[in-house]
Design brief:
The chain is an alpha/beta fold. The protein has helices spanning about 15-20, 35-50, 65-80, 105-125, 140, 150-155, 175-180, and strands at about 25-30, 55, 90, 130-135, 165, 180-185. It has seven helices and six strands.
Amino acid sequence: MPQGQPLTVPNDGLTTRARRNAPLLAVHTGPGKGKSTAAFGMALRAWNQGFDIAVFQFVKSAKWKVGEESAFRELGRLHDEHGTGGAVQWHKMGSGWSWTRKQGSDVDHAETARDGWAEIKRRIAEQSHDFYVLDEFTYPLKWGWIATDEVIATLADRPGNQHVVITGRDAPQALIEAADLVTEMTKVKHPMDAGRKGQRGIEW
């Protein structure tokens, strides 16, 4: 894509404007760091365009304070008070269950994930937002808590111009094939390889 230009233009009868305004489904997957970070970077651009933003985190505990959440809540306040940028909503759908599995059973966690997905489906049908980040959403798909086929069908048929970004390792192949944009983060080096734990301003 030299200078942002596509290498080929399909003969689909659409105008350049129509293609540019088409809703995007993006997937950030792979074992490397930066999947969520990249999604929040896209959300930041969307906010600047005045898009209504909704973030749904399917892994992070409600007690886990991440820097992006604090920043986006401030951006949402800026919009509410001064009309700058777009509206922002941030929702935590789990209790940190993907890694720790400490609170509740797998049945409880699966039900929580399904409830979260049901809410997202409702909002997509109602066109409640312009830009969705489904953070760490690949895990409930991988574990079979939410049917991948249902997710793909819902997103393929979503009305209007709603952009969706899904993050997490081990994205199902069917989701990858359905997406418009797929990025795989590959780890080359990581400070944890040298025994260093997560750092302020880097991991949170």
